[in-house]
Amino acid sequence: MPQLNFLLKIFLWFSVRHLRRHLGRALVVLFGIALGAAVFTSVRLSVHASLQSFTRSMDFFAGTADKVLVRPGGHVPEGVLPVLLAHPAVKEFSPLLTTYVRVHPAKGGAFLLVGIDPLLDQPFRSWRLRGGRTEIAERWLDLIREPKTVILTEPLSREIDTVAGARITLDHSRNRAEFRVAGVLVPEGLALVEGGRVALTDIATFQEFTGLFGLVDRIDLRLRPKTSPAQLEDLARKLPEEIEIRSPSAARDSGSAMIRAYQLNLSVLSFASLFVGMFLVYSLVALNAASRRRELAILRALGASPRLLFNLFLAEGALFGVCGWLLAIPLGSVLVKYLLHTVSQTISTLFVRVHVEGLLLSPAEVAVSFGVTLCVAVAAAFQPARDAMRVPPKEAMEIAHTGRLRRRMAGRLAAWAAGCLLACVPLALLPGVAGVPLPGYLAILLLFVGSALMAPWLLEHLGRAVSPGLRRLAGTPAYLAGRYLRDSGARTSISVGALITAVALFTALVVMIHSFRQTVELWVRQTVSGDLFVTTKMGQVNRFQFPIPAEIVDNLREAGSYADLVPSRRYPLAYGDFPYEFEAMGMEPFLKHGGFVWLQGEAAEVQPRLVAGEGLLISEVFANRTGLEPGDTFRAWIEGSRVELPVAGVIRDYRTDGGVVFYSWDHFKERFHDPQWSGVRFYFRDRSGDIDVQTAALRELLIGRWGDRLDMISGKDLREAVLRIFDETFAITSVLLLIALSVAALGITTTMTVLVLERTRQLNTLLAVGASSRQVRAMICWEAGFLVTAGELAGLLCGFVLSYLLVYVINRQSFGWTFLYTVDWGVLALSAPLIVLTALAAALPAVRTALREPPAMLLRER
Amino acid sequence: MDPTDSIDMMDPTPQPLIIARGLTRSYPLGDGAVIGINAVNLMVAAGEMVVLKGNSGSGKSTLLSLLAGLDRPTGGELVVAGHSLSGAGGVDLTRYRREVVGMVFQSFNLLPTLDVLENVCLPALLAEKPAEPVRNKALELLDWLGLRNRLHHTPAQLSGGEMQRTAIARALINDPALILADEPTGNLDSRNGRIVIDLLSELNRRSGRTVVVATHSDLADDLATVRIRLQDGALADPPCHS
Ligand SMILES: Nc1ncnc2c1ncn2[C@@H]1O[C@H](COP(=O)(O)OP(=O)(O)O)[C@@H](O)[C@H]1O
Ligand SMILES: [Mg+2]
After folding, report:
1. DSSP-derived secondary structure letter, A802
2. CA gap A77, A48 in Å, rounded
3. How far is CA A776 from CA A23, A573, A843, A850, in A?
4. List of residues 6+ apart from A283 with CB closer than 8 A
């Protein structure tokens, strides 16, 4: 304890006073690290809020069930209920149906209608009506006694502007009907599902409304205590073969796994700002250590232990960490306002529906943010602290200020750098850990560290290569700048390291996003081709569960005289825990107009097999997640049919909520059962006329006839919507990138200033021996120019490697897809002069600092 | 102020190289000011070897920095070799430093990233003189100073005496009329100190350059042609000619 007290006192005397004297510099660094911490924290908190609301909603919805019965791709017949009733393992059960509905005339968005048997469901889910005791009992009974009654949550009743006792009309894929609002739910339990956007109805009413007589989505089970696995197996045997017994948390787990993967990716990206901020802390602490060598030597001579000096500088780093984190709180609270909404929006469109009510300050997240910031700052101070510790006390007696140059250090660092860079290769080849590309991220970290360590060697060689020619070409200042950088060693390379990181990140993201977008455009053009897409009302939000009724299909077929129809039926299924969609599709007309983006297999060879129904296609994501390859057999239960087919090829597909499997609709019907149509797309045969006009005409026709039973979108609008979602998704990425770049710009500014401050004596010597202020300014600008050129070159190189890692390792492991690698040379070429200009602008404060005091200080001995 | 401290007392025959009238440099500090030098009147003829003495803090370095054009006076007038330094702009001062003075410091102030030859050539290159003749001249100077075998060593690899001789070569490369040295022996042992002072004196005698040396050692006393004592920023007694 007294030791700590002593350290604190020395820290105040020695370090804090020094920092206070140079407050401007300290504040810039503080701002940099605070910005990094703010971005990191607010990104994590925003995704965490979505994750929390998602899991909470899923948990309330799952209730207390131990197991869930489902029938993949279809509905569970109520015929299995007697089996459950009779089985000794089953204690209680509750059948359940859900679908999304909308109020008619449209008011507010779609919400979840849940059909339950209120009596059977009691042990599973908690929900409570608002009102007095007898009143509640009455309304509760109404739900069973009286057909066409619903119970709404409070926020929902407010949104659609209704009260208990009123009547509302609900729209559904199949039907439209009037309901009486029997009551309003207290916001707890089931009423909190989907952010409160739920309504309850009796199961019989639900079945009548949706036409699913005798069918339910799933049956939740509670087992008797001490049910053995053998008893469960017995239950499975007594049930029809196509019925699966699943864990109730499967949907929650796969959903939260997707959000977590997204959180990790954003965390890593936002960590880049913090990482660049680390260079800032390093450069300032290193300056303090280097410029105070003499003081350190004196302290040592007076009896300070090396440990004390080490701790002093480490404490300086910690001070930056703690203060930076505190400063990050106000910064972060501004950022989080923007991110909270954008992130939940993105997660909803990409992965699973989430409804974020507000920010939850999770103690764990706050601790992570504080810990990471502190660690980063302390780690940044480590090397300067070690240097400080090694200052020999005899330096207190030396007078010459020749600045020791450590030769051969560049070579040693380069060897380390080469080691780091080489280690990336095996790491990139390792598989992810539980779907998380940890080795990939480690490879990225090593790539950054390696390039930063390479910087001194790079500068030395760049300086050596260019400085002789430079004197003739650009005069003495350029020559001096080259010579200085050649020998400046670790100090300059740190700022180059920060620049390399930022440029690399920029390059890699430009390449990745460009490749991604180009590939998605290709995919959209080919696989999402078609002039008009038609599905049942709310087909999309209800995941195409409800086929288009036969009379409408017959009518739609009439368009066959002038358009090719590609019918499809999409089944949401799961392969183990991995969600995917099985799509039976009119293969022949589809291949005539559109096509797939092939990854494995030759179109010419595979397409005939597809049309003949001899095989199916799996998406890259599906292949990566399941390990299936061309030649393997795909097996699944679909609506009571056992589907077993060989995999004919692998294609690229960029739907975000899982994989996809394509098979011929006609052959599905022939071999298994009639899948009906959940949707259809039209391709006009006459491509010479204006497609938009034809589309509009067909659309008018269909709306006139089936307007309230079908949803339609023109192919053009759909493709535009897909690309718009794509661009919106990367809006966050761009914001994070910009912040990282600004922190790097701050880094160059401080480093340049530090480089100048460190050399005040040398610069003044130059002035004293006849340099003009213009020459000194030119020299500093040349130095900045060299740093930036070196950083830009190495950053570009590093960026290409990084983009490769992002496309082929990180994306593959966390989302399961890769893209066609293309480089957007235009943007990269444009960015180069911009980065150079920014960096030179960042050198301005340094130039001003350099000439602030008259060179007479040379004559003052320290 | 000493009433005898007047310009008339000096020998006016050769064209005076340095003329200072009421030369003052004070440093603002809070509400008051710290005096560097105060109302110094001085006239030095070309070709003198001036030794500036005085206790630490008496204003020697301040006076030299004004003479070197490294700083501007806060009061009075200073004319050196026809250049008026009192109101000179940055460009004029740069030209003055290139053409008129050469400077030697106590702590050498060599650039650590340049080798000996490059350090010596630097002032001429900054003055944008052609490289080849400059190099030859530097080699000549280094030869004379006995540093021929040190051309490509960096300052860190030199001894104190070698560093100061390099600094002297550097001061000479532009052929200045005036050489200023602030405590040039302060960081050297007595043998090397002697060598440096002898070199400065030789420069004065052989090529008739004016040399001003600030020092509180006695090494230079017998070589001086003019001795000036500073005390609390003012001349302690009239300049003493020998
Ligand atoms: N930059 C400065 N700021 C404040 N005071 C200064 C500065 N330079 C010199 N002084 C003061 O001017 C006086 C003369 O200093 P200096 O010329 O260095 O003396 P000397 O070289 O004779 O030891 C001293 O009192 C010193 O404190
Ligand atoms: Mg002095």
Report:
1. H
2. 38
3. 25, 70, 13, 8
4. A29, A491, A494, A495, A747, A750, A751, A754
Query: Closest Cα partner for A280 from A548, A33, A13, A593?
Result: A33
pLDDT per position as a tens digit, B142-191 = 999 999 999 999 888 898 899 999 999 999 999 999 999 999 988 888 89
Q: What is the CATH number of the domain that holds B59?
A: 3.40.50.300
Residue B9 predicted with pLDDT over 70: no
Q: Chain B interface, mutation test: which of A294, A395, A485, A769, most B Cβ atoms within 10 Å?
A: A769
Ligand 1: residues whose CB is within 6 Å? A 860; B 27, 34, 36, 54, 56-62
Q: What whole-number distance in Å separates Cα of residue A658 and Cα of residue B35?
A: 80
Q: For helices A715-758 and A306-350, give the axis angle rounded to 10 degrees.
A: 170
B82-114 confidence digits (pLDDT tens): 999 988 888 888 899 999 999 999 888 888 888
- Per cent of chain A over pLDDT 90 is 31
Q: Supply φ then ψ for residue A219, to 5 degrees.
A: -125, 120
Residue B41 in domain: yes
Q: Does the N-terminal peptide bond of residue A105 adopt cis geometry, omega within 30 degrees of 0? A: yes
Asked whether residue B6 is domain-assigned, the answer is no
Rounded to whole angstroms, the Cα distance separating A773 from B70 reads 12
Return the residue of B nearest to A481 by Cα: B113
The structural domain count of chain B equals 1
In contact, A802 and A796? CB cutoff 8 Å: no
Which of A470, A483, A675, A648 is closest to A571 using CA atoms? A675
Model confidence, pTM: 0.78
Q: Which domain holds residue B124?
A: 18-241
Q: For A856, which of B71, B125, B127 is closest by C-beta distance?
A: B71
**Whether pLDDT at B222 is above 80:** yes
Per-residue burial over A617-646, b if 16 or more Cβ lie within 10 Å, else e, is bbbbbbbbbbebebeeebebbbbbbebebe
Residue B8 resides in a domain: no
What ipTM is given for this predicted complex?
0.86
